[in-house]
Amino acid sequence: MSILSTLTPSAPTLTAELVRPGDAGYDTARAAWNLAIDQRPAAVAYPETSNDVAAAIAHARQNGLRVAAQGTGHNAGPLGSLADTLLVRTDRMRGVHIDPARRIARVRAGTLWAEVVEAAATHGLAALAGSSPDVGVVGYTLGGGLSWLGRRYGLAANHVEAVELVTADGEHRRVDHKDEPDLFWALRGGGGDFGVVTAIELRLLPITQAYAGILWYPIQRGSEVLHAWRELTRSQPPEELTTVGRFLQLPSISEIPEPVRGKSFVVVEAYHVGDRAQADELLAPLRALGPVNDTVQTVPMPALSHIHMDPEFPVAGFGDGMTLGHLSVEAIDALVAVAGPEAAFPLLSVEVRHLGGELGRARPRNGALASLEGEYILYAVGATPVPELEAPVSSQVQAVIAAMIPWRARRSYLNFAETQRDPGTFWDALAHDRLKAIKAAVDPDGVIRSNHPVE
Questions:
Q1: What is the pLDDT of residues 35-57, one digit of tens each?
Q2: What pLDDT, on the 0 to 100 scale, is given for residue 7?
Q3: Does the pLDDT of residue 1 top 60, yes or no?
Q4: Nearest 5°: phi and psi at 314?
Q5: What is the pLDDT of residue 177?
Q6: 454: nearest Cα among 438, 440, 435
Q7: Chain region(s) in the chain for CATH 3.30.43.10
Q8: What average pLDDT does the segment 335-342 reach?
Q9: Does an H or E element contain 246, and which?
Q10: Cα end-to-end distance, the chain, whole Å
Q11: CATH code 3.40.462.20 region(s) in the chain
Q12: Mean pLDDT of the chain
């Protein structure tokens, strides 16, 4: 591993650690969160300050390289080859500052959601975090940010107050509604194609607890449980309630709690930030089906980061998602057939989340991803701890996606798209054209690249 190194003698001096192919730490530095993705960048830089980021971008340009930023390395698959790319890892740019009076969190680029959630909770506040505590705040938010509180409060991207970044010309910028509003708009749901973000300011919410947990049933009851769950979602539940219908087929590994280890279930997850009695009334039909376990209870907000049981450490796997315009009786039957107890190959998880509410409202001050189209979103994933599982897992995920195509919405969601897509599927035509114009203005040479580029 070399420090203050350069790819060529004429390149500008770096102020960040640089790791190149052949260095002892290269394999660790290049690893994505999904260990099945074999990304091999031209080099990896570890900045610690925004000045380090600017120097890394200048270094890349001097050497004819492009720049891709990663915090945790989630959703790295769509990037493709990094042979011509300097990978800027923001892992060492960590830190959270909470302003409780303003209800604002200033978060540095490499910070994980768990750090923000815990820091906010000490002040009686909550953030629009996702389902996993070890996802990076910046990448999640640039892609939109789908929280368990989203039906009530919308996408996390639309709760951003300001973004600090370094653009392809090496310029440090702080953008908000007043300063460079076009670039600020693009960064809120337009992805990471516009610069390397160094910090972000987020609005927080005065929420301290939720009524949340999981109703567990044997997987053989998948049809009746998911049909009952669908009826709940169609009953116009309050926006304070988010639910998930999900198949779980858990491996026999020590990281899985013993009571469910190696077993298969259909489950309904519930996340409610309103009156408990109201939630109990809504969940009563599902409880009447007799779950084998019911963990729905009042919990502090940080607990919401763990209920979904996303892996909290890098793993190998393959997954992909799609947005669903609606969910008919036939759609549930198709999902049960392809992902339930008779599935051709068992996947770790196949879930459908209920959307709608504020997620579907395009407010005038929202960003590039003003809203999510569709009433539901699906994500299927399987683990591939050995290469022999890669083909059957990939095939089964694709089979799930194919089975649900009749109910697919027109627009995809960046953070659930783990394969390369036509960028025109992420935003409406007007937003996409505006994003391309902003990209051309701030990065005419296409130095900055992201997993889902705007063109």
A1: 999 999 999 999 999 999 999 99
A2: 44
A3: no
A4: -60, 140
A5: 97
A6: 435
A7: 2-89
A8: 97
A9: strand 241-249
A10: 35
A11: 209-416
A12: 95
Supply the DSSP symbol for 12.
Answer: P
Spatial distance between the Cα atoms of 309 and 190, rounded to a whole number of angstroms: 28
Instruction: Determine the 3-state secondary structure of 234 from DSSP.
Output: coil
Q: Which residues pair with 96 in a beta bridge?
A: 107
pLDDT band at 251 (very low <50, low <70, confident <90, very high): confident
Non-local CB neighbours of 363 within 8 Å, separated by 6+ positions:
154, 158, 370
pLDDT at 3 > cutoff 50? no
Q: Name the band, by pLDDT with cuts 50, 70 and 90, for residue 8.
A: very low
State the CB neighbour count (10 A cutoff) for residue 128: 27
Report whether 59 contacts 12 (CB < 8 A): yes
Q: How confident is the model at residue 258 (pLDDT cuts 50, 70, 90)?
A: confident
Which residues lie below 8 Å from residue 77, measured CB to CB, with a gap of 6+?
32, 34, 37, 418, 419, 451
Alpha helical stretches, state H, 13-102: 26-30, 50-62
- DSSP letters of 115-142? HHHHHHHTTT-B----S-TTSBHHHHHH
* Percent of residues, the chain, with pLDDT higher than 70: 97
pLDDT band for position 10 (50/70/90)? very low
* 67 closest CA partner among 77, 78, 53: 53
**Secondary structure letter of residue 157 according to DSSP:** G
C-alpha dihedral (126, 129, 132, 133), degrees to nearest 10:
-50
Query: Domain 96-206 - what CATH class?
Result: alpha beta
Residue type, 248: L
Distance CA 7, CA 76 (A): 24
Backbone angles phi, psi at 447, to 5 degrees: -75, -45
Instruction: Label residues 54-89 b or e (16+ Cβ within 10 Å = b).
Output: bbbbbbbbebebbbbbbbbbbbbbbbeebeebbbbb
d(C-alpha 451, C-alpha 281), whole Å: 42
Residue 189 token pair: 């749901």
Going across the sheet that includes 160-166, the strands are 96-99, 104-108, 196-203, 160-166, 172-175
Residue holding tokens 């779950």? 291
Given the structure tokens 């049933």, which residue do they identify? 217
User: According to the model, what pLDDT value does residue 261 have?
Assistant: 85
User: Phi/psi class of residue 295: alpha, beta or left (left: φ > 0; alpha: ψ in -120 to 50)?
Assistant: alpha
Claim: this prediction has a pTM higher than 0.85:
yes
Domain boundaries 2-89, CATH class: alpha beta
Which segments of the chain belong to CATH 3.30.465.10?
A: 96-206
State the Cα–Cα distance between residues 56 and 417, nearest whole angstrom.
28
Q: CA-CA distance, 436 to 455, in Å (whole number)?
A: 7
Task: Return the closest-CA partner of residue 317 out of 340, 347, 345, 350.
Answer: 347
How many CA atoms does the CB half-sphere of 360 hold within 13 Å? 15
What is the dotted CATH code of the domain comprising 209-416?
3.40.462.20
